[in-house]
């Protein structure tokens, strides 16, 4: 059933009548991993996997939520300080609180939502949920006076303050600003950005999900960020955006081997984003692919956020002649993003499915993705 019909019907049976429909999207990132919280560049886009919510003000100061996918309800008062116990409801609670904190207005509402963004795959279903509600609250209660940069920050602060993930801005930015057929080259320091038309004739973007759990809360993700901040402090700069290899090598003896490797990856990765954009501008897809493999290598060996299953997926992609492949998102599980020429697509899917299944006893999940619009009202 179409997401829109599913959400509208569930709203009618749960709360009666109808509300207003809003959607937002998960994201991919072509290149630029773990650079966002280092003030570097990223290159994400929203995808055709969405979260949709049907929402209606209820004239009280209470928020009543129903998650169709989990078949669970949650409620909280807008004046209550305590977040709901269910993690999924904390995202909405956080968005309400962060909107209010910024001077925005939020009144009570009833909402039903569902989505088809794969969970735990590194496609940022949480950012999709946050930006869907941030967008909706702005439209319903604030006459769209909160700008889109703030909407992205509302989602990011929700992660920081209510979910324990000290993330950068990339995921929420892509979800809020996503535009059909365009990737976004975002400078995470200045938040200047540029839409890059991205429709590669003869290639597809394919995600291969290892189905290994991806858990960022209390995770080594925050530790990676800490390492980068340690090095920046040692270099007396705000973020690693301002570092280069010469500066890093000059302090090598004073920092831990681990912090050195993390910073080295970030310094190399921020350059790769710019190189990929240049290569795309001249239509040099082979170079784009090589840089994606280089990112995978760095994420696996220097940043150490890969795992055996993802390295294996990367190896299979290479063997099959996939143009570019790498682990995508925060890491520690999730999926690889693959730039696959049409001519080898069928063979790649068959081979990766068979080989992965033979080694790990379960098939990876395959998603072809199309770059799509981000947060929006659905008519
Ligand atoms: C996660 C985070 F939420 C992002 O901010 C980003 O750091 C990403 O990991 C790694 O590039 O998705």
From TrEMBL:
This is Galactokinase. Residues 91-179 form the GHMP kinase N-terminal domain. Residues 9-56 form the Galactokinase N-terminal domain. GO terms for biological process: galactose metabolic process. Its EC number is 2.7.1.6. One of its GO terms (molecular function) is metal ion binding. GO terms for cellular component: cytosol. Belongs to the GHMP kinase family. GalK subfamily. Residues 278-340 form the GHMP kinase C-terminal domain. It holds the Pfam family GHMP_kinases_N. It comes from Duncaniella muris.
